[in-house]
């Protein structure tokens, strides 16, 4: 038997097998030991962190637990129009709350309420795990009713404040509260404090408001509804969302059944009770709350962002900028069919109305058919803008930084983005050389993209937009603008309204604000009015406005305000080709339509579309794409009544100059430039044209050397003159010859007329060049023809004479005959370009903007043209869309 290292093979195998069988046991022990050690370290560290956080917890007073101070909202005129917090709150004693209400609340919110000491360790563990795995944000529940009472009493309910530190402090205060209060006292305090949607606080108040009964008389289905609303009161309101409310109520009923609080029969009866059974009709104050809902959301956001105060409990006086008349009209327009035909029931709309000079938010519309309290505020939601961004990203910066005139010429031609992606216009056509005004008014994508990508640099565009409060990040790539931002971006209606307001007021930007100041309960005044900044020069604001006035004029059938001066811009976004196919929409379908316009008093931005793209589309075919324009007209007309609506005054920095159309760069007209070739545009002072055009109006002199001889033998006039040379030797002139009233156009310096009339003949000659004709030179020649006898004698003499030069004579006659044939051929004909004439510049019809892409009567042909007007962009169908 062989041996290995002095050990037999058999013994070696036994020893190896034994050692191998022990390895897994050692590994398990090590892992278990490491896990226990890690757990103990985490527990120690967690305990230390908990102790640290708890040490900084705020004091919890009886006043915090029981009382809150109502906050009053004041309108622009100083009148109170809404109260937050304690206004609509009734307190009930512990014995007033029936068991069914307490059982419903504990069943859905805290099933171990009667057993824990203020916190639920399992819930705390879930919250800590969520904090670690979600980058410092608490995403899991687990709070006990005691913790929720603490949070409602001393902490903010904002999601951003739900940190691990805040959770630790809640837990510590909850433990302390459980030591000081009985379970009955805690549940009573909680039921008296919780929010029950709208401006209703406490279950006792809700019982009166919703069912017009004392809390002691609540039935199972009513108690279950209130318990379910605690999680999200506005979402589960039976008035706002009855279907969601019933689903949540039934969930509570099922949990009550599982916990043994009710019987199967009681549960079935509660399930079968309609959600609206017993509900009282909403009061006027409730309806008023819906009217101001979008504005109230903005107010709460601003107070929360700019102060550390809780509007619901701090007893504040909040001075807002709301115009209640305008806000009511916004609500009426969006929530009825009395003003605008919305075509489709599920189409959504939102708007923002801002005072042009101050930036004050006068009114907000968060959506159509408003039912939710503190619901979705679409007025402040970011959406793709389409062409409403063009004045902000391209034309404004071009005037501000490059001092472009409204005449500045750009060529509308085939074009691709820097990465090679082709871009097209709404009509798929190219207009050639056009002015910047025409490019903006007719919403030409290609000229806009050329200016943005080829003339501006991104820093100039970004600087201009940043000064207007426009965030670059939502529409940028790695913090920078992208080529498609020439024609599309991402903004909210509030941001658009505030940005356009800077054009309306001469160049100043003020961050739009709903709250001007807050006065605390102890009289401290906090000014929340933002500072204004000079966002652009006055020449930029005026010149952009002057161009956008043409847009408003073009769409006067839809946005017209009578004699009120206004300016504006449309915008539309696109579906991708894949989306059109997947959703089964027609090619003319678009997801979003905009109109942003302004007067000297207000700036108003309106959006219409759908919350989810797949649910619907807008189109000119059914008129739904015109919805924003109709809303704009209705509201702007209303708020403009009774106000001085002045026109914009041209600042000294802007010069109005008449130039010759088509010249590049712009040139002043010559003395003979025809009226049809004149156009008046705006130029920045110091950048006005000084040179006169040579295309028209070049002064010409009369030709020289005019000489006429009559050849009796040939009976012809021989007319000669000096060659006329222009300063530009590449240009040629044509000669205008008149012989006794007969006109000839000649390109040579001689001409022969056969068999002229007898008598004194007037010969006149002038030159034409640069599309103009110079003065005439003239001579008179006497033509006397031979009689018959003279001709016979001459013929005889000719026959007897020697024919010494007959060959030369024949050649000369042949040459003269050819000359006359050429001249007769050109008789009364105008020269072609090949005959050295100057080619006319483009005609008016070539350069004139198509002012009405939609006919005044909305005729079908023009509407079909506009179906595509705002629908051009990348070939991949991205939302770098065309817009009108």
From TrEMBL:
- The yes or no answer to whether the keyword Amino-acid biosynthesis is present is no
Select a single GO molecular function from the record's annotations and give it: penicillin binding
Q: Where is the composition biased (Low complexity)?
A: 873-884
Please report the stretch or stretches of sequence annotated as the Penicillin-binding protein transpeptidase domain.
Answer: 353-600
What residue spans carry the Acidic residues bias annotation? 789-805
Which stretches are transmembrane?
Answer: 31-53
Q: Where is the composition biased (Basic and acidic residues)?
A: 1-14, 806-872
Which reaction is the catalytic activity of this chain? Answer: [GlcNAc-(1->4)-Mur2Ac(oyl-L-Ala-gamma-D-Glu-L-Lys-D-Ala-D-Ala)](n)-di-trans,octa-cis-undecaprenyl diphosphate + beta-D-GlcNAc-(1->4)-Mur2Ac(oyl-L-Ala-gamma-D-Glu-L-Lys-D-Ala-D-Ala)-di-trans,octa-cis-undecaprenyl diphosphate = [GlcNAc-(1->4)-Mur2Ac(oyl-L-Ala-gamma-D-Glu-L-Lys-D-Ala-D-Ala)](n+1)-di-trans,octa-cis-undecaprenyl diphosphate + di-trans,octa-cis-undecaprenyl diphosphate + H(+); Preferential cleavage: (Ac)2-L-Lys-D-Ala-|-D-Ala. Also transpeptidation of peptidyl-alanyl moieties that are N-acyl substituents of D-alanine
Name the UniProt key words of this record, in alphabetical order.
Answer: Carboxypeptidase, Cell shape, Cell wall biogenesis/degradation, Glycosyltransferase, Hydrolase, Membrane, Multifunctional enzyme, Peptidoglycan synthesis, Protease, Transferase, Transmembrane, Transmembrane helix
Disordered: region residues:
1-21, 781-884
Q: Name one GO biological process term.
A: regulation of cell shape
In the record, the note on similarity to other proteins reads: In the N-terminal section; belongs to the glycosyltransferase 51 family. In the C-terminal section; belongs to the transpeptidase family.
Protein name (database record): Penicillin-binding protein 1A
Q: Which organism is it from?
A: Alkalibacterium gilvum
Please name the taxonomic classification of the source: Bacteria, Bacillati, Bacillota, Bacilli, Lactobacillales
